[in-house]
Amino acid sequence: MAEGLVSVAEVETAFKKFAIHGDTKATGKEMNGKNFAKLCKDCRIIDGKNVTAIDVDIIFSKVKAKTARVITFEQFNQALSELAPKRFKGKAQEEAVQHLYSLIKGKEPANVGITKVAKVAAVDRLTDTTKFTGAHKERFDESGKGKGKAGREDIPDASGYVSAYKGKGTYEEKVKEA
């Protein structure tokens, strides 16, 4: 192999990583259109001038089988050979394909925009139980752990056995008043 040439095996490794991205049932042998577009975007094949996302979608549709929704590695290589002259204008076909291979080699799907746990000063301030005042302060113990229902004073005493006589031991007092 000549110096600087990227092997097909290295490109196939990247193909497999992108093929299984976001799909738990994927085997890595076939790639869907969404992941093909992601590969083209993450590996900077889509440059916005010569190659756009629309070009990638058109070429994907062109190389896949009529009823299929996925492409194999062979069809993937066919798609790359169609994308190469568009991306690297003025270069020979083989040279352009090698440039594309070098863009793809060793790449993995980038996880951009994944939601992280918010650790903002405002959230910390709002959830700090030591700064609570009034009735809210009574609902937490010294360690900041909530007391649950036991921390509330407004829970009615429903311990009586008749609806009119709430509270244990109050019957005698009510009878005396009457």
TrEMBL record:
Keywords, sorted A to Z: Cytoplasm
Localization in the cell: Cytoplasm
Region of interest called Disordered, as start-end residue ranges on this chain: 137-160
BP-aspect Gene Ontology terms: microtubule bundle formation; microtubule polymerization; positive regulation of protein polymerization
Coiled-coil regions, chain positions: none
GO MF term (any one): tubulin binding
Key word Transcription regulation present: no
Residue ranges, compositional bias (Basic and acidic residues): 137-155
Name of the protein in question: Tubulin polymerization-promoting protein family member 3
